[in-house]
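Quick illustration for those who missed Monday's session on complexes.
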Amino acid sequence: MAVFACAGCGAGLSVPVARVALPAHAFRSGGERYLPPVLPPGAYAVDPEPHGPPFRRWAEVGAGEAAAHGVYAPVPHVSFGAPGRILLAPGDTCGTVLIPERCDGCCGSDGGVGPNLACARCGREVGTRIDDCYRWQAVWLEPGAVRELPVEGPGRPPGDGWTVTGLPPVEPLGWWSDQWSAAVGTALAHLLAASAGGPLVLPDGLVTAVFGRVPASVLPSPLAAGASARTVALVGPGLDPRPGPGPGTGPGRAPDIALVPRHPWTGETWQPSGGAVPVPLDAEVWTYLAAPETASTTRLPEGVERDDPLPLRPNWLFQPDRWLLLDRLARLPAVREPWLRAVYDRLAADVPGFHL
Ligand SMILES: [Zn+2]
Ligand SMILES: [Zn+2]
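Prediction with zinc ion bound:
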């Protein structure tokens, strides 16, 4: 556990919080009009990359300077913000005041013009609150303006942390989950890079429904003559085919590419056995894909469910977040390879607003 304090005067700026993996939807914009906080109470996450303001246009920056900021393909704006920003739920912060002239949204703050939170005691600019429409609510503390102080607190729940409850892909009101859109969009960047430009064979069912259409639009078909397709499978806790006999082994051949979970606390990628290339995916989304029956549900208990209407089905196809897909792809050094850059350019051409 840790608390965050002002680096200038030492005033406390948060309640005790425990570190978790940075969720993909921390950077999603869109979905429902009014969204909840990105993180649950009592949690914080750290973004190792620059994502915040100030931003500079690609045309002013150039490929060399952009690469120094971790961006390897043209994007509309390159972040020159500090890496290491700290994400919290707004309700877990304290001791700050808004800087009104930096609150730039239409019904809240969009966080696009620099820090809009100051330390209430000394006035130092310490972070940015985001709570505008179509944005997941967040406070981002600036790494240079705050100090992290370890504190005693309740320990982690039992277990190694890999076991989580699956997140259903469809909201109770019948639309696709925003978190799924963000998580799958981000994972798709790694999946395309792992394809090496060749065809992919995905498992049937929900994996193909949510992951399948983007690779099908930019990679060769597995049915193409002479194509050597790479196989993709879910691999992770309780689901790791290991070659050879002995305890803990399972049947089946290891896939070429493994869709694996990210550790919910550390963000570490599950390492598959058998040489498969890992493609990291949000652990709650991975768990639902691997074991949908473990998901939390709003259904009535068995026996009284006859009065519960059937869950709605979305009336549109699943849409991975294309902005997050492009943002992640632009940050993979592999995008400098000509074949992947061509894939990137084709995807970017189809995204409205992705102008340079
Ligand atoms: Zn202060
Ligand atoms: Zn608004």
